[in-house]
Fold:
Amino acid sequence: MKLVTFTYQGISRVGAVVDNTVVDGLGQADIPQTMLEFLAAGQPTLDALQQLIDSQQQRIALNDVKLMAPIPRPGKFLGVGLNYADHIAETALDRPEYPTFFTKQGTCVIDQGVAIHVPKVSEKLDYEVELAFVIGRRCRHVSLKDAHKVIAGYTLVNDVSVRDWQFRSPTWTLGKSFDTHGPMGPWIVTADEIRDPHNLNLKTWINDELRQSSNTQHMIFNCYEMIAYLTQAMTLEPGDVIATGTPSGVGVKMKPRGYMKAGQTVRIEIEHIGSLTNPVIDEPDDFVLPL
Structure:
């Protein structure tokens, strides 16, 4: 199932993409209207949405809706650095002993098609295609064996990074959290539809130039290992998003540097999930992220 947050006729709600339509959950007592509430409600909500899909009712043409980031403001939005062997090789850094997590602030999240800003304070704007998993149940101290059970599904994240700001601090938070620097979506593919999250091709294009091409099998720490590690320290909650790192081919390691520039378009793609496209523009004067 492809779960979406979408807007139609000025109202945002939850639904599912089926072929070229969106199955609309609005008005259904068993289907909450925000993705956080939907995921927190668990299997009964998925069953109710599946029944609505099977009924062939409440469908809207996909072209008539605005797809939003599936989780517009995640409670936790975490990334992990240096998690692909080929990326470690291009950076010439040491292979980490433990996963290195950082925070992307929720206000960086934007939707499919929304512009990424080249910030006024830097031109070192980089792309990173990443598989992200979405937590589906509140959990702590999850074993490696059971970690797959707490994943609701998978989505795409472009971990846009302002490189000079990233390396001003060992936490990386500021350089990873500029407004518009967290494209996410266009949907969450439920975990039952992804046979093996650790064998998915992933790619990045800048305009028509292929920049990144790898496979999630090259992760150092896989999704389940990340969950087992994180939940030793903290409770994960429905709707938390963990981006799992990027492979080689980032702009900072190109010669000359391949940073994104205004007027370009970045497209990321992950096998069995979909693609996410965003234009790049200069940051507008006096920009404030809308509600």
Remarks:
- Residues 12 and 45 are 17 Å apart (CA to CA).
